[in-house]
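ESCALATION

Customer reports they have been waiting on this structure for their group meeting. Please prioritize. Original submission:
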Amino acid sequence: MLADGKGKKGGDMGLWSVLAVGQGFQRPEGTVGFELYGVVSAGDPGSALSKAIDLATRHWPEIAQGHPSSGSEAAIHAEEINEVALVPGMEVDVVDVSWM
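Update from on-call: job pushed to the front of the queue and completed.
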């Protein structure tokens, strides 16, 4: 993160560790929540969160309930978003969701 808090300059991509929590999602077993975690490439923390949610929605379509336009009360909140360095074996642009 740059000193001005705006992320990388000139569209440079960084790697971001994203941890988010979802609440109020309707699934066959009832109203549930989840934790989402992954490392994504993005230009800033907000874009990293959006990308992580988009990637998760591809595998778990019910996560789309958290989008403001869905009319649902489901919500997704970022818990932590941190810039990280690439290490051997790290999976990038892959997220995991644990339903609770």
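Sent to customer with the following note: The first helix runs from residue 45 to 59.
Escalation resolved.
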